[in-house]
Every structure is written in C-alpha cells, then in structure tokens.
Amino acid sequence: MSRAVRSTAKRLAQKLVGQSDLRGFARKQKLWLSKKIYRRPIAVAELRQRLIDLGVTPGRTLWVQSSWNEFYNVALRPSEMIELLRDLLGPAGTLAMPAFPIDQDPAKLFLVDRAPVYTGLLCEIFRRSSDTKRSIHLSSSVCATGPNADYLLRDHHRTMMPWGKDSPFCRLGELDARILGIGAGFNFMTHLHTAECLLFDDIPFFQRVFDGTVRYRWKAAGGETGEHEFRRRTGDIRPQRLRRHFADITDEAKLSNLRILAADARPFIDRAVKLGRQGITMYIEPVPRSELFVASKGSIA
User: Fold this and answer.
1) What span, in angstroms and rounded, lies between the C-alpha atoms of 103 and 32?
2) Against a cut of 0.70, is the pTM above it?
3) Looking at beta carbons, which pairs linking 111-114 to residues 24 or more positions away fall under 8 Å?
4) Backbone angles phi, psi at 92, to 5 degrees
5) What pLDDT, on a 0 to 100 scale, did the predictor assign at position 301?
6) Is residue 101 within 8 Å of residue 138, measured between CB atoms?
7) How much is the pLDDT for 84?
8) Tell me, what's the pLDDT at 22?
C-alpha cells in the first residue's frame, strides 16, 4: 500500500470514529473490552513467581518496558511494582527502563533530571526515584539503578546513533541482560532499533531510515551542561511483522489479562541484525527494496 493510499485511509478512519489519534482510540477500545473479559485478580505471589520463571533473578541486569493500563488486575501501586522487581534482582542486580522525554524540542534546554517521560507511568515513577540515574539523550534516554547503571548510561550523549554502539541498548547485550515487556507486547521491544544503527554503515537501506541530525543543549541537576548531536530517525514501522522471526528466542506468559514477553538482550539484538542483513525489516517507509540491502563495499557481511 502506497503512502498516499495509507494517508487517505487514515483520514477516512479518523472521520468515521471522530478521533484524530487512531492508535490511541484503538488502545482504549481494546482495554475496555479486555476489562470486560479478563476479571480474575492476579495475586502478587503469582506474579512474583512468574517473573522468576522468566529470568528475573538475583544479580541480573533487567530492562523493563510496560503499559500500566494492563495492570488493572494486579493489586500493586507502581512504586510497589518497582520494589518487587528490585527485590527479585537483589543488591547486585541492575534495573533499567526507557525514559524517552515527552518534550523533544531541540530548541529548548533538556533538563536531564526533571523532564517527564512518555514511556508509561511505571517508567515515570522509576525516573523520580532518588537513586535512579538517567542517560543524556533527547529522544531515547534511559533510566537505571544498580551496579551496572553507570556503565549503561554514561556515554549515551557521546553517540551519534540513538540505539547503537555505546548506547544503553547495545550495552544491555554486553551485560547479558534480560529484556522484559509487561503488558507492552512485541511492538514495544525497543531493541529492534539496534539493527538500523549497527547496520547504518553497511546496508544502504538503513541510511535512508535517518534524515539529518538533531542538536540540543542539556543541563543536569548538578549544574553540568553540554551539547549533543545525534541522527534523527524517520520512517514508518510495523514491528509485528518481525514477531515470528523471534519466536524461538522469546518466552511468553499470561496471567489473567497481563501478557509478559521476555528475551535475553544479546540474542535478540543479534537476531535483529541478522534479519536486517537479509532485508527483513519492520519498516514499510522507506520502502525496503531488495537492492538497498546489498552490503556496501568494504563492509563485513
């Protein structure tokens, strides 16, 4: 389907439902229906054991993406859910979550320690925790606490690629981290974006995924200031197109309505890169034409 056809279909759908945010409208309708169907309360002990079964164990480095709307059958506040995760990881474990800022206007000063996130209520409560650190990045910052937090976060503002080498996302792979989606699903597995960064120099298609750069100024609570420039991602994605290619390296569980998806970061990233080299991508714009996936001269296939 061409971009023009999709745009026309979108406008017609917006007019039909009387909503400009179609995805938000669809999520609300799906949640409404889910609450009618799934009513069984989820015991905290049951959730705790399932998380252990999925690899949330002492000493691990853990990445969590979540949708708090899906926790309606769990009798926990966000702060209590964070404490549950930290308790399972223990003092030697590291907990990390996305902290993508709501306001990404490069003309404004990015206040690293104060800017709220759009990545969900659990992430925002975690960001506000006194011992949580945040990476410096206007589009894709990360929050973390624990022994590996500094290593994960410290060089994010020195990278050109938001999810590439030396970013928290690739370093999660280096640390043998476990990545977890709680109520968020495969569409929210941010580590899929590592492929376009790691293959940027090798595969011509992924150079088209980025359009120019973004430069902004930042300031930390301690008074430190600086500037950072990174490549700006464009394009239209459908992550679900890749779901079947990861079935053998992901684990899934369901408690009442709450779906949990888990994977080890290193194999997940490796698989994303392998698929990218084969021309298998979540992008529909730019159009992934086969000739754009021929490795550049001098690159290692």
Assistant:
1) 29
2) yes
3) 111/218, 111/219, 112/136, 112/141, 112/218, 112/219, 112/220, 112/221, 113/220, 113/221, 114/221
4) -90, -5
5) 46
6) yes
7) 98
8) 43
What tokens does 5 get? 């056809």
**Total Cβ atoms within 10 A of residue 58:** 12
pLDDT (0 to 100) of residue 138: 98
Torsion sign across C-alpha atoms 293, 176, 190, 50? positive
Whole-number pLDDT of residue 13 = 46
Measured on CA atoms in the order 8, 9, 14, 20, is the torsion positive or negative? negative
- β-bridge pairing 110-111 and 210-219: parallel
Cα dihedral 29, 71, 142, 216 in deg (nearest 10): 40
pLDDT in the model for residue 17:
45
Neighbours of 245 (CB within 10 A): 14
Q: Which two tokens stand for residue 32?
A: 């409404």
Intervals of the chain under pLDDT 70: 1-32, 34, 36, 38, 297-301
DSSP states of 51-95 as a string?
Answer: HHHTT--TT-EEEEEE-GGGGTTB---HHHHHHHHHHHH-TT-EE
Tokens of 102: 């709501």
Chain segment 255-298, per-residue pLDDT in tens: 999 999 999 999 999 999 999 999 999 999 999 999 999 987 65
Q: Which amino acid is at 59?
A: G
Please state the separation of Cα 100 from the chain's center in Å: 9
- Sign of the Cα pseudo-torsion (271, 53, 182, 133, in order): negative
